[in-house]
Q: What sequence folds into this?
């Protein structure tokens, strides 16, 4: 088998498809002279709101800012606790800490790798203000159950959708076929089920900018007004600052680029599911390897396998020798990061997952030959 060099992500095929449109859009913004909160930003917000089926979309500087501003808008602050997943990028817990609240972790489900709704209630205290489910790798969390818990305990929900733009929820309550009313969320875009949804448009995301960018979505007029104030130094009207806020505005060049990509996001997400299905077929039966389930609504921001028997690091190294780049998302659960070390109990499932996960190359236009090479390389190593 002739050696191939395959990156974890290749944006060149996408650029070949839409490059001329992108360059025209950038040029239009440059000549307009309106670089921040201009018409491109407004148009992108409106188009996102329509696409997601939500009342308000507020463009921001990053997905991390979306979490911070979202928490602030919900009134989360010092003395409060927010329940989230230990298995996520640091921004999830970091945002909670940065608003002065305390992250509280509930372990994940070993199959979905999302927060286990059956463990959330045990983590609730009198200080709990909100739940932050993370739709890890583009796989929808169990929003039906999470929403029910939040309603029962009068808690807010902020969805961390950094990896899941365009995914739609498909779950309903098991055992009642939706007759309890929980099935009303079926088909809703992730980010629109909780009180707020926070998105990242980091360049590697399914909907990626050419720099940092983020978004908050909500159906609540009051929360939307607060988010808009907070993104512009706590003011709506210039020089009339009403609160301490942030400089977190989506710039017009990124908005223009994202508008072009937004028109194709369903196509790209569908292609990613096809890629995942092909990987699963190619890797079926490989000893010591667990492939991800093709869950309803999963849009595969990452295609992440689990390498058993303590061989993950060895497998990653040997794949690189064969020209295949892989990434470990995430090697250290949030509660074990140096900034939090010693502050939290052990979370066995998250800690076990972190020792096994390995994300393989995936992008919408990856070829069958490239996937075949990745899969055969894995088979050869694990045989």
A:
């Amino acid at each position: 088998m002739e050696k191939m060099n395959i990156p974890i992500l290749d944006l060149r095929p996408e650029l070949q498809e839409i490059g001329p449109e992108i360059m025209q859009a950038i040029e239009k913004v440059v000549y307009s002279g309106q670089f921040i909160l201009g018409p491109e930003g407004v148009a992108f917000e409106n188009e996102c709101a329509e696409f997601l089926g939500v009342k308000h979309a507020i463009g921001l500087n990053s997905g991390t800012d979306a979490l911070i501003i979202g928490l602030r808008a919900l009134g989360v602050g010092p003395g409060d606790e927010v329940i989230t997943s230990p298995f996520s990028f640091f921004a999830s817990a970091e945002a909670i800490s940065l608003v002065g609240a305390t992250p509280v972790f509930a372990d994940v489900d070993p199959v979905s790798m999302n927060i286990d709704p059956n463990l959330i209630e045990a983590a609730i205290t009198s200080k709990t203000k909100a739940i932050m489910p993370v739709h890890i790798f583009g796989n929808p969390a169990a929003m039906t159950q999470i929403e029910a818990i939040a309603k029962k305990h009068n808690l807010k929900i902020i969805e961390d959708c950094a990896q899941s733009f365009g995914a739609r929820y498909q779950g309903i309550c098991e055992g009642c076929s939706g007759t309890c009313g929980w099935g009303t969320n079926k088909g809703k875009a992730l980010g629109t089920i909780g009180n707020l949804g926070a998105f990242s448009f980091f360049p590697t995301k399914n909907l990626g900018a050419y720099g940092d960018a983020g978004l908050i979505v909500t159906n609540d007029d009051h929360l939307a007004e607060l988010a808009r104030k907070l993104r512009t130094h706590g003011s709506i009207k210039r020089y009339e600052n009403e609160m301490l806020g942030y400089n977190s505005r989506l710039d017009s060049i990124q908005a223009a680029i994202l508008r072009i990509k937004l028109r194709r996001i369903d196509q790209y997400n569908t292609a990613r599911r096809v890629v995942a299905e092909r990987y699963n077929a190619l890797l079926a039966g490989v000893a010591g390897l667990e492939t991800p389930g093709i869950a309803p609504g999963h849009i595969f921001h990452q295609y992440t396998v689990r390498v058993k028997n303590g061989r993950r690091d060895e497998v990653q190294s040997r794949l690189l020798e064969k020209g295949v780049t892989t990434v470990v998302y995430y090697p250290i659960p949030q509660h074990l990061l140096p900034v939090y070390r010693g502050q939290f109990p052990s979370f066995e499932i998250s800690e076990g997952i972190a020792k096994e996960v390995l994300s393989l190359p995936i992008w919408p236009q990856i070829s069958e030959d490239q996937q075949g090479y990745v899969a055969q390389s894995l088979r050869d190593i694990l045989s």
